[in-house]
Amino acid sequence: MKNKSILIYILALLLNVVCIPGNGAASETIKWYSYDDAKTLEKENSNKVFLYFYSINCYYCGLMEKNTFSSSIVSRYLNQNFIPVKVNSDKERTISSTYNIRGNPTSYFLTENFEVIGNLPGYLPPKDMLNILQYIHTDSFKKMTFNDFLQKK
Fold this sequence. Notes:
single chain; alpha+beta; 2 domains
């Protein structure tokens, strides 16, 4: 009877880890890099760079965290196809100045060599973010407009 109770406890624990969002394999979080770490990684990685500027007291930055970056589809796509970099505009003013940041949130899309492809200021919902990431990652921005890309999807 004691062994049966232990087995039930272990099964319940495993189900809890696997099935509850935010734990284990059920959820994926973005592996954010610092700007300096990404510059080092860039030399050994062929992924484009997603550069996200935020500030602590920014309402729309909080929405990006809560809605967009917590989306498992967005986080998985970012982790697999980009080097995601998170920059606090208030603390890392030199980097913010380099990219001429005037408001938060701001998303930059860079080549593997940190050359600017484009940027978007403001909040991006998960679906919009995913479409933009796919547009950039597939190099479709070199061949067609974003609207053409969306129509072909």
